[in-house]
Amino acid sequence: MKKNIFFIVTLSATLLSCESFLDLAPENQINTQSFYRNQNDFQAALYGAYASLQGIHDISFLYMSEMTTDNAEIQLSNPTAQELEFDQINFTPTNGYAGSCWSSFYTLIARTNTILGRIENASFDETAKKSIQGQCLFLRAYAYFNLVRLFGDVTLVTIEFTSPNQIVAYDKSRKPVADVYAQIITDLTQAESLLPQHVPDNRGMASVGAVKTLLAKVYLTRKDYLNAATQLEEVMALKNANNSTAYTLSDNYGELFSEGNENKTESIFEIEYLSGNLGEGNSYASNFYPLVQGMAVFKGNLLAGGRCVPTQSLMDAYEPGDKRKDVSVGDQLPLTNGTFVTSTYCRKFIDYSITILTDGGVNFTVYRLADIYLMYAEVLNELDRAGAETYLNHVRERAGLVPVAKTDKDDFREIIARERRVELAYEGHRWYDLVRTGKLQSVMKEHFESQGLNFSVENHELLLPVPQSERDKDPNLSQNPGY
Fold first, then answer.
1. Can you point out the beta strands (E) in 88-226?
2. How far apart are CA 136 and CA 188, in angstroms?
3. Contact in structure between 350 and 363 (CB atoms under 8 Å)
4. How many angstroms separate the CA atoms of 197 and 234, rounded?
């Protein structure tokens, strides 16, 4: 799909410009009246929905999922107050990154609602129509899954708004978490029935594998281990168009996060980036590498931002001999004078060929098979079934580590948690893993104490505050307790 990136940008900028459903003005719909006529129109609109994911996953999403944990910290001596809020887990309703994440996910929801609302009346190939519907349902479910985990109760919108009066009349109150999850499951179940049952080579498109993976994550988050197990088993059994196993572990862990990482057999769903094309690149190099004068890493000796660098705790979490460590993180930076300086940095998703730090062309992997194996190990452990260590050890063996034996159930939970931390570092899982397992407060207490900081995570800080910018638009939108 990378060849369609330019079209994605054009469409996103000119066709669907509202930032969230509350921003709709009549002129936003002028260009859409003559659109949505044929398959090409709907396919283009779908690309516009996918384009929403680039900005979300560029840095705001990782601030919330990594910076808020013991994996990452700010290295800058003068970070912004909003960045410090994530580093210290001391959120305020005016935080721009949280606001951006909220509005960006609702922009994605609005784009999928428009497509879903109009495609029924369009006349074109039924198989193509079902595929577009299935992908939109997945994207909407993905948006709501992240919103509900970050903010708790949220507004549920499943229709297209076509006038300001319709928005005013709509019930925009926040719906209970259980209702949001019910909608997510409904969307994904329908998507599963609409999408082809083989996995396409293009992993930048939502497939039946991505749908089942998200369903498994939903069930795991809800502690519905039986349904999670079913979905995970079905993911592992999926085939591609050639009737071969759709997903296999890559022999080379490093190829998953470097230039040319798109469409690997381990990848289930990924966000596509493209350098050198109208701002379609990612900014991971800018944020994951530190601000060190004389750093000789990128062309032209570009200086990075140091806004999301690995903690010493993460550096120490890798076992001796773990092949993943040198791929994922480092702490020795080369300088232009031929020497090295000690400073931590993340290597994942970095494009070392760039000449602009915000123009990386490496795709961001949202879901991949190693995550499936580790979730399945967790589910088997919780269900007291045999085989949990088998799937955990698939991941460890690729990393060059010795297999571990099944232990006490509680001890094995900790083994799985440690394995998820190092396997999936900087892939946007750590915050969610700690919250759903009830470990965030104790882990972060220990982390802050190790740094000599008297910080704590209060109960209400397990959720982000509803952005004040959204409450200014709608004063009836309630705030999470504690904020």
1. 154-155, 174-175
2. 10
3. no
4. 11
Q: What local confidence, expressed as pLDDT, does residue 2 receive?
A: 53
The span from the CA of 7 to the CA of 30, in Å, is 19
Element spanning 340, H or E: strand 340-346
CA of 333: how far to CAs of 36, 182, 208, 330, 363, in Å? 51, 48, 42, 8, 24
Q: For residue 274, what pLDDT band results from cuts at 50, 70 and 90?
A: very high
Tell me what the pLDDT averaged over the chain comes to: 92
Question: Which residues, including other chains, have CB under 8 Å from residue 442's CB and lie 6 or more apart?
Answer: none
Q: Which ranges of 160-224 would DSSP assign to H, the alpha helix?
A: 164-169, 177-194, 208-221
Three-state secondary structure call for residue 196: coil
Containing H/E element for 408?
none
- How far separated are the first and last CA of the chain, in Å rounded? 42
pLDDT, tens only, 390-444: 999 999 999 999 999 988 999 999 999 999 999 999 999 999 999 999 999 999 9
Query: For 243-264, what is the mean pLDDT?
Result: 97
